[in-house]
Design brief:
Distance between the termini: 37 Å
Number of domains: 1
Helix content: 10-25%
Number of strands: 11
Shape: globular
Order of helices and strands: HEEEEEEEEEEE
Strand order of the largest sheet: 1-2-3-4-5-6-7-8
Largest sheet: 8 strands, antiparallel, barrel
Length: 149
């Protein structure tokens, strides 16, 4: 009886952990001056997202603050224009502007809250791998959850 109870508790805990795990839907983006900035964008199960820049050990959590939907044609995927806010220690640090249609990213930029400076990025299909983003000469970024999440 105790063994069955222990197995049941373990199964419930395992199921709860799996449900809380982030989704593995991600995109690789490159931009900035001379295309020297690389980042991995992940959509998470709870409706938020996070971003990790190449060379940085941590991910920054972002929250969607608006989204507009456009039907371009009846037989085509909808276009979504969304704005995501990055906050550090409770203060807005910047905003990400994202345009997607179907599985593709057609527009992506970051705007600094402090000075309004905007950095443009483009989807980097060559860097995309199932386990994350791999750029030549840059440490790969993975979509796997870490203790830092």
């Amino acid at each position: 009886m105790i063994r069955r109870l222990a197995v049941l508790v373990f199964a419930v805990l395992l199921a709860g952990t799996a449900a809380a795990a982030p989704a593995q839907d991600h995109r690789c983006l490159t931009g900035g001056r001379d295309n020297s900035l690389h980042l991995l964008w992940r959509w998470l199960d709870d409706g938020s997202a996070d971003v990790q820049y190449a060379g940085q050990p941590t991910r920054l959590r972002v929250r969607r603050v608006s989204q507009d939907t456009t039907v371009l044609a009846e037989d085509r995927p909808y276009r979504f224009d969304s704005v995501w806010e990055e906050r550090i220690e409770g203060r807005r640090n910047g905003r990400y502007y994202l345009t997607t249609q179907g599985a593709r990213v057609y527009g992506f930029s970051y705007e600094h809250a402090r000075d309004g400076r905007r950095t443009e990025f483009s989807e980097d299909l060559e860097a995309w791998q199932e386990d994350g983003c791999h750029w030549r000469g840059v440490e790969p970024l993975t979509v796997a959850s870490s203790l830092l999440d």
